[in-house]
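Deliverable D5.2: sample structural annotation.
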Amino acid sequence: MRNRQGDFIWYELMTSDPEAARAFYQAVMGWSSDKFGDPASDYQVFSASDMPVAGLLQTPSEAADNGAHPSWFGYIGVDDVDATSLRMAQAGGTVHLAPRSIPGVGRFAMLSDPQGAALYVMRGEPDETSGSFDAQKPGHCQWNELATRDPEAALSFYGEQFGWQKGQAMPMDDLGDYQMFQQNGVDIGAVMKAQSGMPSTWVFYFGVDDIDNAATSIAAHGGQIHHGPADVPGGSRIIVATDPQGAMFGLVGPAQDVKAQP
């Protein structure tokens, strides 16, 4: 995937029950799903309007034995996976999965930042640009949010690694600022202080046409809503939820008055 350094290029759900998770997200998001091209692989790909947007796989047994719980992960495009992994480790990050390649897919590594939030870095082999992140399209990830123990340190780390820049900031009382960050001058996410006792983690917000319908679908299919539907600045409404296996995710959609326009 010939994306620019620092682009979010893929999202992946690692879960204890892939078939149940597949049914849940198909119902809530309207995604279709197909097995990955390799017949020997159990990896599944979610698509929105025939555009691949995310992956789904069983949590590896070794990771499960070490306490890994169902989670969504983001993949960040880089020019050189090996050099980036080394640089991130030298800056205080941790390498969990050393750089490796999948023929026809690309080279990737799994790491966590110095505050403990996990992510992947990847250089894809295909020439096309990833469409997984698109702030304008339902079914695609529209926002990348990092809740972390040390927002300033995290912003500095990611800025040095991927070139992200600070955007606007919104005060959040005791939680400090909700600090937007930009990739090539465009807001793609925000960093905020994690609530006391909570680990540093990424939450990815996927776009939907109707937040209220999505909330009903989450509850009807065994998920749990922790926040929302709630209005946010900019004319959107959000939900933060967990799926039936416990993976946290977000949804974002238009406000009711915008949705109601012909």
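Annotation notes: DSSP finds six helices and 16 strands in the chain. The radius of gyration is 18 Å.
The annotation will be released with the project's public dataset once the embargo ends.
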